[in-house]
Amino acid sequence: MKWVEIQVKTSKEAVDAVSNILYELGANGVVIEDNDVDLTDFDWDYVDKDLEASMQSSTDATVKCYFSQSPSLPDKINLIKERVDKLIEYDLDKGPGTIDTVEVDDEEWSNWKKYYKPMKIGPEIVIKPQWEDYQAKEGEKIVELDPGMAFGTGTHETTYMCINELQKYIRPGMDVIDAGCGSGILSITAARLGAGHVLALDKDELAVKVAGENVRLNHLTDVVEVRENNLLEGIDSDADIIVANIVADVIIRLFKEVGNNLRMGGLLIASGIIKERLDDVMDGAAGSGLALKEKAEMGDWVTLIFSK
């Protein structure tokens, strides 16, 4: 299979925001090329430090990720460009803002696998890449993933916080909706924690395919139903918990729909919110019938828990 490496040249101050743009569109990891800061301070999946000696001091940085070749890829690249160009609206210097693409093959991707190791999140959940051996300890629940090069493995702060919140609030038999499921990591986590039924929704055909494969890998097809769908549009199911690890603008849109699918007393776990957009999201929640129950922060990201 052929893959495409996407290289976004940006400013150092915008690295976090650009990385999130790539995560939001399905990247499962990013490479940061930057020699002017101590990159070990960042919680990236993998940082390419081999270039440090050869790179000149600069205010610029390059963020890389991988996507499989597909008919939707040109649209994704255009969307990346649009979102990078909009960083100025949030008082962020986008730097050069250029996007380059390079074709790679499976052998090059295989070199990435060594950077993905089992990861414990909270008291119960362990995220385990399919190719890694791991023996669960007492009380641990394994979420096994074969992320390919398209979707998240739980290492980004927003996913990490969502998994923590699911561990706090899921009770056996609950119904859960995962709006924008990506790899299915949150849907599978919810099922592992005892949810009775999980509806995993994504509008990206590739995401639905990968999520379905990961659900089967975890032998959870009797609990997790994966569907191609644009958020909650046309969904008539009710849920005790709706989790949406997306972006601020989409969460604001979701406030208008979520009341139709969330049971009284139910929770919305909203993540993917960069701190600069927190006020916008809170303004968007006004009049939705949802009350803020909890706020969690990690790095530059915020996760909000609302109750109906």
What can you see in these coordinates?
With 308 residues, the chain is α/β, with parallel strands linked by helices. The chain contains eight helices and 15 strands. It has helices at residues 15-24, 73-85, 106-110, 157-169, 185-192, 205-217, 248-258, 278-285; strands at 2-11, 31-33, 46-47, 60-68, 98-105, 119-121, 125-129, 141-145, 175-179, 197-202, 224-228, 239-245, 262-274, 291-298, 301-307. The longest helix is centred in the N-terminal third of the chain and has 13 residues, at 73-85. The protein is globular, with a radius of gyration of 19 Å. The relative contact order is 0.12. Mean pLDDT is 83; it is low at 35-57.
